[in-house]
Amino acid sequence: MSVRLRDMTVADLPRVMELEEELFAPDTWTEWMYRDELARPDTRHYLVAVDADADADAVVGYAGLIAYPYEAHIATIGVAGTRQHEGIGALLLDALLAEADGRRTPVLLEVREDDEATQAFYRRRGFAEIGRRPNYYPLSGKDAVVMLREVRR
User: Fold this and answer.
1) pLDDT digit string (tens) for 56-75?
2) What pTM did the predictor assign?
3) Nearest-CA neighbor of 127 among 109, 139, 115, 141?
4) CA–CA separation, 17 vs 23, rounded Å?
């Protein structure tokens, strides 16, 4: 794995939107949603993973954290299909969890009910299922599994 992490910028959004479509259609975020998130640096922490052996614009993954004083949420995490199973998702998630740990907040997330591999990935990082959100993903109609990772001291 030859990637490095850096803060996401507006200039990254064309590639992020390509990955959104590849990974999450039909339940994708819009570019406007990402622009809004990036405009809130006080409570948002968005990263991209870039190929360290290629151009700095070679985004191969991305992730975001919404961090409030009382809890944090993994907003999104995705890795290009051609780069999955290289540890990039774990690198991104671990960086977000370190940010949350520094704020001493529990971390919540939602994951599609039919995505068992991703649920297992989160369980390996200390998350446990605490509930379900019916029809959370409106375009697909899928339910979300809500997972929680307690505060790490």
Assistant:
1) 568 999 999 999 999 999 99
2) 0.90
3) 109
4) 10
pLDDT at 140 over 80: yes
The three-class DSSP label of residue 33 is helix
Q: Is-cis flag, bond preceding 26, omega within 30?
A: yes
The residue type of 125 is R
Residue pair 41/98 in contact by the 8 Å Cβ criterion:
no
Backbone angles phi, psi at 67, to 5 degrees: -125, 110
Q: Is 104 helix (H, G, I), strand (E, B) or coil?
A: coil
CB 60 within 8 A of CB 47: no
Long-range contact set of residues 51-58: C-beta below 8 Å, sequence gap at least 24 = 51/2, 51/3, 52/2, 52/3, 52/4, 53/2, 57/11, 57/12, 57/15
Element (H or E) spanning 39, and its range? Answer: none
Whether residue 136 contacts residue 142, with contact meaning beta carbons closer than 8 Å, is answered with: yes
Torsion sign, CA atoms 17, 20, 26, 31: negative
Segment 29-40 shows an average pLDDT of 96
